[in-house]
Amino acid sequence: MDDIRRLHASRFSLINPVSDMIDRCAGAQWYQNPEFWYGGVSNPATISIEPARSLFQFVIYGELFASSMRAFLEPRSNLPWFDHDFRMDFIKYCIPDPMCQSYEGMTVLPIGAYGTQSEESELMPERDCDQVGLDYLLQCRTWTEAWQRVRHAIGPDFKQEWRQQMWQSAVQTQGLEGLEMLRPGGLEKWRPRLKAMRSCIERLESADKPNDIILSRHWEKAVSESPGMALEVAVTMLGLYVVT
After folding, report:
1. Model pTM score
2. What CA dihedral angle connects 196, 197, 200 and 206, to 10 degrees?
3. Which residue of 48, 145, 233, 243 is 20 to 30 Å from 20, comparing CA positions?
């Protein structure tokens, strides 16, 4: 019951406010900016996003793979972790998108929302481009700057790109409670944990650097062995652009 009460309370303290933030990043409120296509926003685009759904997709990724991130932060602990194939399967099949198509290095099976053409119109309407929406959200300035303020409250950016990438992903892969970091006063509760995560990254040796995995010889984008939702969402849509 305590968990149910906390979840209910989070609707008003976390879910609704952060959903509103997403709406301002890429939803209906975003589109209402004056002169939208003519300088009203920094990066106008045709995006269809349902803020609450995008929020829960982001949250569930964190709930599922925070433990995998910990395995890379503490490599000497030999903790179990989900590999990039498993994480990308979650994105492909639990966040389906008609723009997600097979290419050399990544296969999208014709199951579920990717079933027959007759089923597709009901299971996955063309307007529900959730991966496209997440890809835009996770890279948009309002979203990235909000998380940047969290990181800078703990310490400066890392000079080495792989450490910085791990730091960015670790902060954002913390599930529902991790949204507290974006709320007024919420960072203080997380400060000790974030300092510990940052210290883990500082102590990593070069040999601990997660491998980069290039899925296709036609594209230079790579995913990391360690969790990173932004990159993983980006590569699931490469079938639109990769010529095999």
Report:
1. 0.91
2. -160
3. 233
